[in-house]
Amino acid sequence: MTEYLFSVHHDYSKPLFDDDADVEAMFRDTAAFNDEAQAAGIYVFAGGLEAPDTATTVHVREGETLTTDGPFAEARERIGGFWVLELPDLDTALTWAAKASAACQSPVEVRPFQGE
Amino acid sequence: MADASAEVAAVFRHESGKAVATLVRMLGDIDSAQEAVQDAFVRALEVWPRDGVPPSPAAWIVTTAKHRAIDVVRRERTREDRYRGRAVMEGEDGTQADPAQAIADALDEPVRDDQLRLMFTCCHPALGMEARVALTLRLIGGLETRDIARAFLVPESTMAQRITRAKRKIAAARIPYRVPSREELPERMGAVLAVLYLVFNEGYSGTTDATRPDLAREAIRLTREVRALLPDHPETTGLLALMLLTESRRPARFNASGDVVLLADQNRSLWDRALIEQGQRLVLDCIEAGQPGPYQVQAAIAAVHGDARRFEDTDWPQILALYDQLFAFTPTAVVELNRAVALAEVRGPAAALALVDGLPLERYHLWHATRATFLERLGRLEEARAAFATAAELTENPAERTFLRGKAGA
């Protein structure tokens, strides 16, 4: 079994949803996806993130700590939330990713964790 | 002895895909499988020229490589390389297996399934098209990395990197080594056929440079193998027919000075009749199967061309009807462009030009070349020359560029 990071990518340069109905559907479908993943015994961890402008970046170089307000690099696309799921192989992961993407109405990037 | 080695190399290359396929399953790792097969090749170079090529070269390679693989597995075990060792020994259900037993069991499974597994892994949709093509030629086709690099006109280091990256992704992301389920098969098969067709086109439309490996023939060989493995898939038969019928025209495609000769002007006595007959038989098989698809329709179009001993004899209404069918499967501007060529023959160049002018293909050299041909026939020669010149600028194929420049200057 391999753990995969499912990261949800949002384009923060424009409104995330067109109307309230979309937002409601997203919360409902995402909650349903979480229930399904838990019932399947593949759920490890998941969470949604606050907007990128709430981020703080810390970088220690040559003993100096540099703290900056905001994300590490400028980009339109940012991670808005993520899942960690434990699955047997990539085909299974891609099937779950399709469900996840439909539920959260956003692209989902699938990336394996390094083995121990 | 040089001849014997070359023969060994050729037989070995053609059979090595099967051996790699079985060894990947036994070892659970592509690199180890390639290494073991490479060792078997060194051994073959010693033994085959002396004792002759064995009756079943693939079985010989697997057996020889297997002995080497068992050594590798033993060494891995004693080295306590936990991570790699587990990947090597874990079965499909994730259970630990006795390595010696696993290898013995592996030998009993049909080679056919292994070849399919390897093919679907190399052409997995999670890999980019370039990576799929490179892996397929390297692992299934048995081509050396430097030859694949030469075929695609990229530096050897670039191609080596592409292959290494693809293999790393297969291992790290756990792309499974299995034959897709029945429901997944049509989509996954489509990915495999797309790779084979791309390899074929690269070989067919590429230059006549004799130092490049013949990708068109390699693609035909691999497509034949795929068809033998999964005979009940009419699109595979269609693709094979399309390749054979296209390949049949190759001797007439360039003149003595290496310039492109258009279909209308080709010396049809140079066409390979044996390939045409093979292709046409396959098209009939497809019609009988009654599950048409885009490759089959394209093959049918090529078969109609193959029937015409002279360009004037071409059954254009039939070709136009087939393009209508193709457009129903793949409604793209490029299909419309090809359909326009048939339309010009049935209803005249004015109707065809009107159709082509509405297509959003300004960056495609064949759009300009096709327009130019229609303009020429309508007597609008200045516009035709300008369109040929633009087409010459846009093409990346040197032989085509020479041809189009000639038309622009004429």
TrEMBL record, chain A:
<dbReference type="InterPro" id="IPR011008">
    <property type="entry name" value="Dimeric_a/b-barrel"/>
</dbReference>
<dbReference type="InterPro" id="IPR005545">
    <property type="entry name" value="YCII"/>
</dbReference>
<dbReference type="Pfam" id="PF03795">
    <property type="entry name" value="YCII"/>
</dbReference>
<protein>
    <recommendedName>
        <fullName>YCII-related domain-containing protein</fullName>
    </recommendedName>
</protein>
<comment type="similarity">
    <text>Belongs to the YciI family.</text>
</comment>
<feature type="domain" description="YCII-related">
    <location>
        <begin position="22"/>
        <end position="111"/>
    </location>
</feature>
UniProtKB/TrEMBL annotation, chain B:
<dbReference type="InterPro" id="IPR013249">
    <property type="entry name" value="RNA_pol_sigma70_r4_t2"/>
</dbReference>
<dbReference type="Pfam" id="PF04542">
    <property type="entry name" value="Sigma70_r2"/>
</dbReference>
<dbReference type="GO" id="GO:0016987">
    <property type="term" value="F:sigma factor activity"/>
</dbReference>
<keyword id="KW-0805">Transcription regulation</keyword>
<dbReference type="InterPro" id="IPR007627">
    <property type="entry name" value="RNA_pol_sigma70_r2"/>
</dbReference>
<keyword id="KW-0731">Sigma factor</keyword>
<dbReference type="InterPro" id="IPR013325">
    <property type="entry name" value="RNA_pol_sigma_r2"/>
</dbReference>
<dbReference type="Pfam" id="PF08281">
    <property type="entry name" value="Sigma70_r4_2"/>
</dbReference>
<dbReference type="Pfam" id="PF20239">
    <property type="entry name" value="DUF6596"/>
</dbReference>
<dbReference type="InterPro" id="IPR046531">
    <property type="entry name" value="DUF6596"/>
</dbReference>
<protein>
    <submittedName>
        <fullName>RNA polymerase subunit sigma-24</fullName>
    </submittedName>
</protein>
<dbReference type="InterPro" id="IPR014284">
    <property type="entry name" value="RNA_pol_sigma-70_dom"/>
</dbReference>
<dbReference type="GO" id="GO:0006352">
    <property type="term" value="P:DNA-templated transcription initiation"/>
</dbReference>
<feature type="domain" description="DUF6596">
    <location>
        <begin position="188"/>
        <end position="283"/>
    </location>
</feature>
<keyword id="KW-0804">Transcription</keyword>
<dbReference type="InterPro" id="IPR036388">
    <property type="entry name" value="WH-like_DNA-bd_sf"/>
</dbReference>
<dbReference type="GO" id="GO:0003677">
    <property type="term" value="F:DNA binding"/>
</dbReference>
<dbReference type="InterPro" id="IPR013324">
    <property type="entry name" value="RNA_pol_sigma_r3/r4-like"/>
</dbReference>
<feature type="domain" description="RNA polymerase sigma-70 region 2">
    <location>
        <begin position="13"/>
        <end position="77"/>
    </location>
</feature>
<comment type="similarity">
    <text>Belongs to the sigma-70 factor family. ECF subfamily.</text>
</comment>
<feature type="domain" description="RNA polymerase sigma factor 70 region 4 type 2">
    <location>
        <begin position="120"/>
        <end position="170"/>
    </location>
</feature>
